[in-house]
């Protein structure tokens, strides 16, 4: 079977590695990079480090407004799909690349599989919520990270071809953890010892595009008495500069890091504070307490089991949790067993057998 996989943003590259490996055992995969992320540190570094196959196409759409970026991907993706005529298109998560990939395929009557289906924040002001709602309307095969996502789909009337497979992010981490320990020099380069610092990431529009929220997060970081390592997303760097925010010396703003360095920075942090979906889950996999710099999260299970604390962007709330948050000893395996990619490949195999052919329509 010919499978066209769509990737465009940082977490999609990281997930592409284990999924491609599993799919390519039995299928022909055409990998399409939309070009949504394009800086070396936001894109190529992951391909180099993780052995992701070189994309067959790079649509080079670059940045733009939501309509422009999504529209450009849609137009360029349609051409590729018409040329390649895939039997299945795989999209992942909730980016503009996900939305455009799912829409282009559906309009051409190509079945769509959605990895990370059923996640919801129930906040339609988040661009990602719109992207995942639409992708799930259009998809034919649904691969869910958790049972909660299966329930969300059921509540929206989606019951068939829904599979709980676990989290491909966990597959990526387990595959690369030893390699990260061997190869990463991040701790040494930054002069850090384990548990002597906190790791921070911020990139959500709700935080970067609202100077009050970004300023609130900055005030909290400036007030802690601990080293803070902050790899800054390009969008956040621009926002910090245009809001004229200054950080004290203990808050070290660095360029975005590669995945192996990020693993090591996460694993050795005393605390993680983030608005990233991927980083919240990785904190949980690694057993590092996490403060989420948002008012809600898709990853509610991590909050329910006591390992993640929602603090929003209010400096007092952030500081209070920063000093007192203490997760329990138990960390149940809510994100599966680290073999989500193989499970996805098995479900696709079963779906593609002659007996099942056409049932997605
Ligand atoms: C996107 C996804 C978000 C995901 C995140 C992962 C959407 C709507 N959002 O958000 O779900 O969590 O990726 O990181 O798809 N930029 C650069 N260089 C790059 C990439 C971006 O400078 O290589 C800057 C540009 O100024 C751009 C801005 O960052 O306008 C935002 O990039 P974009 O891809 O639109 O959204 P993200 O915030 O990265
Ligand atoms: N990440 C990375 N380098 C960084 C910041 C994040 O490798 O400087 C990784 C992180 O470990 C996780 C993924 O990027 O695997 C998450 O991406 P991001 O936070 O951009 O998006 P989200 O998960 O929120 O969609």
UniProtKB/TrEMBL annotation:
It comes from the Bacteria. The keyword Secreted does not apply. Coiled coil: none annotated. Residues 23-348 form the UDP-N-acetylglucosamine 2-epimerase domain. NCBIfam families: wecB. Belongs to the UDP-N-acetylglucosamine 2-epimerase family. This is UDP-N-acetylglucosamine 2-epimerase. It comes from Anaerolinea thermolimosa.
